[in-house]
Amino acid sequence: xxxxxxxxxxxxxxxxxxxxxxxxxxxxxxxxxxxxxxxxxxxxxxxxxxxxxxxxxxxxxxxxxxxxxxxxxxxxxxxxxxxxxxxxxxxxxxxxxxxxxxxxxxxxxxxxxxxxxxxxxxxxxxxxxxxxxxxxxxxxxxxxxxxxxxxxxx
Amino acid sequence: xxxxxxxxxxxxxxxxxxxxxxxxxxxxxxxxxxxxxxxxxxxxxxxxxxxxxxxxxxxxxxxxxxxxxxxxxxxxxxxxxxxxxxxxxxxxxxxxxxxxxxxxxxxxxxxxxxxxxxxxxxxxxxxxxxxxxxxxxxxxxxxxxxxxxxxxxxxxxxxxxxxxxxxxxxxxxxxxxxxxxxxxxxxxxxxxxxxxxxxxxxxxxxxxxxxxxxxxxxxxxxxxxxxxxxxxxxxxxxxxxxxxxxxxxxxxxxxxxxxxxxxxxxxxxxxxxxxxxxxxxxxxxxxxxxx
Lengths: 154, 291
Prior knowledge:
Number of domains of chain B: 3
Structural class of chain A: alpha+beta
CATH topology of the largest domain in chain A: Ubiquitin-like (UB roll)
Helix content of chain B: 25-40%
Largest sheet of chain A: 5 strands, mixed
Number of strands of chain B: 14
Helix content of chain A: 25-40%
Number of helices of chain B: 11
Number of helices of chain A: 6
Strand order of the largest sheet of chain A: 2-1-5-3-4
CATH superfamily of the largest domain in chain A: Beta-grasp domain
Shape of chain B: globular
Strand order of the largest sheet of chain B: 4-5-10-6-7
Oligomer: heterodimer
Largest interface: A-B, 30 and 27 residues
Order of helices and strands of chain B: EHEHEEEHHHHHHEEEEEEEEEHHH
CATH class of the largest domain in chain A: Alpha Beta
Number of strands of chain A: 5
């Protein structure tokens, strides 16, 4: 069974006729947005995190048809005119990337977090809690938290 | 790709009810954080879906004129955590909501799904039990109200029949006004985990005495349970450390935890007693604050 959906994908309007059995993860990867990673497939690891209407969700367990009428953001769209976003630059500067598999998902969670808490006083406990849905087996999280903190300051 | 064989997106609860009746194999999907995992695991019973994802009539939180708090079944856990009515009237539910999964899951998982899948570890269940929540269910024969304490039948089993849709969770004004409350989820990790034991309590004081105590547990029996014996014993007791200990000791009368790979029965018994004391004490402290 197929359905036609309209969505804004990284700032561009798209209308697609899709198989209703697709996850949003599969749709995005078919569109070439391969920053969106298939990790655990059950909502534990957050490697597939994207923003739906600016809210982080696990795209592996989100039906693609639910994206109808929504805006979807992935890390590809955070690069504007060749410039990486503040959050992306902070991850680079803090060395918050090792193998890189979890990074796109983390960046999207952090992007939503920074947009929500910018200018507010935020402790590390809140950063950890709000990033608990993203797992990283390389960094030990310290550099990731430093990157997020640096975005909140300025 | 999910193995979905039949799919219908509905525009209203009544449409969902009639489709469920006509398709005896069909199941509802709302947030999808349980159903889609089961589909991926190849469970055949989820291949016919009726989609109520973000159905507008199920998404609101309202305080009725009589003070009752009305929560649509498709309200997400993130909404529960942040909604002003929930935080003002039943903060224990916001507290419990914050313990479920991680942020991405809380952004889509619904209170209705948490109850309807019948999990004995449901993170909203203990709080809803002590708030004596009432469930509004629309079915083939019309709408009915079922107390949450009568909703569970056993692990993964609830009273819903084919054609039933849980519409709302209602918390009556008399069950939160004047009550202090607390919830504690004990799990191996502080986030992204299933409860080993969950415990919630509400308490109303009469001076230095307990006027009313309600205490409920998850994963402590084949379904979420109130510890009635302890509740009865608490009524009229002076608030002292010895009395709280004695009341907490009685919770086991109504519970029957199991051995599982997550924790042994003996460990669960120990956690139950420890949490009972901790949560009753915190609920009493909170009732002082909220009076």
